[in-house]
Amino acid sequence: MNIFGAPSRYIQGSGVLDRMGEILSPLGDRFLAFGDETVLSIVGERVVRALEGNNKLAIMETFGGECSYREIFRLKSVAQQSKAQAIVGIGGGKAADTTKALHMHLNLPIVIVPTIAATDAPTSHLLAIYDENHVIQEVLRMEGSPSIILVDSTVIAQAPVRFLVAGMGDALSTKFEAEACWKSGATNLFGGKPTQAALRLGQLAYEVIRESGEEAKVSVEHEEVTPAVEKVIEANILLSGLGFESGGLAAAHAIHAGFTLVEEMNQSFHGEKVAFGVLVQLVMEKREGNFIRDLIGFYRRVGLPTSLEQLGLREFRSDKIENVAKRACQEGSYIHNMPFEVDEKAVVEAIIEANSLMESE
């Protein structure tokens, strides 16, 4: 069977944060809203004003920064004591995942307010739980999807441009991974077969990024909200989010998982690692050299990494690449959604070939 999942509402635009009280009115009158210190210093007062201006109670909490059970249970206690009727998580991926975890424990409507467009996590029903040492413990799944995603384009445009560019890298993968799952007959993140809609969304995300990515980057460097910025934000968060969950994941994200084991790459963002994973997947698929080189040219123009060195591995180490391949090919990995057999040797060779191709440009 085919399955397609999505949030109840996705709302994007410049200044929508100031209309939060009106937009969230159907969810109740008492809201627990949280974000880390930096996020609250930027938008905290706007959130309080927007909610209280519509006769809503805003219970503001400072987020500890990690989606850990300790933080989840702390915020759960605050929500229960304050009799919150809905949860509003503001910030990046960790805040979004904590919001989802609170939904699983409290069964309350949740609103995710991303302040960066670095990943497609806001629309997803997946969440990653970490321990206090920032090591991932498990990946959980909500039964449904988030209630509302509220994206203020002005807030996104004021964040460092590297976040937007990393989001482009994550979004670009959607097309290629969904196509691989479609060809292999693999299941998507809802346990069903990919839908045509998911394939189209992945293709559209790719087209938007290629057509508007460079212009959007320049605009955000000047903290301007332009049509190109609006298109790329939507591609990074909505199109990619719906496309990856309902289309499925494959080699690009599996390679990313392997790269997380390389300490030198820890400073690289999720989307930057995935972007390199896309090129490795294209090599594995034996795509035309001109197509890959054209994509590499785009990477360079927007600032996505085009070599292992740019991801942080300044000295090539075969043992580390072998560890990446071992992790990418472990049982249950998304790499086995590719429409052909993949083993560790093939992954090592593809990483080396992709890196050599990029360095030869």
Report on this model:
A six-stranded parallel beta sheet has the order 1-8-5-4-2-3, with helices on both faces. The longest helix has 26 residues, at 196-221. With 361 residues, it is α/β, with parallel strands linked by helices. The model has no long low-confidence stretch (mean pLDDT 94). The chain has helices at residues 20-23, 37-52, 69-82, 93-106, 153-158, 161-184, 196-221, 227-247, 251-259, 270-284, 289-302, 318-328, 344-360, and strands at 9-13, 30-35, 57-62, 86-91, 110-114, 126-130, 136-141, 148-152. The chain is globular and about 60 Å long.
Q: What is shown here, in short?
A:
The protein has 13 helices and eight strands. It has helices at 20-23, 37-52, 69-82, 93-106, 153-158, 161-184, 196-221, 227-247, 251-259, 270-284, 289-302, 318-328, 344-360, and strands spanning 9-13, 30-35, 57-62, 86-91, 110-114, 126-130, 136-141, 148-152.
Helices, strands, pairings?
Blueprint: E1 9-13, H1 20-23, E2 30-35, H2 37-52, E3 57-62, H3 69-82, E4 86-91, H4 93-106, E5 110-114, E6 126-130, E7 136-141, E8 148-152, H5 153-158, H6 161-184, H7 196-221, H8 227-247, H9 251-259, H10 270-284, H11 289-302, H12 318-328, H13 344-360
Parallel strand pairs: 1-8, 2-3, 2-4, 4-5, 5-8
Antiparallel strand pairs: 6-7
Keywords summarizing the entry:
single chain, 361 residues, alpha/beta, Rossmann fold, Dehydroquinate synthase-like, alpha domain, 2 domains, 6-stranded parallel sheet, 8 strands, 53% helix
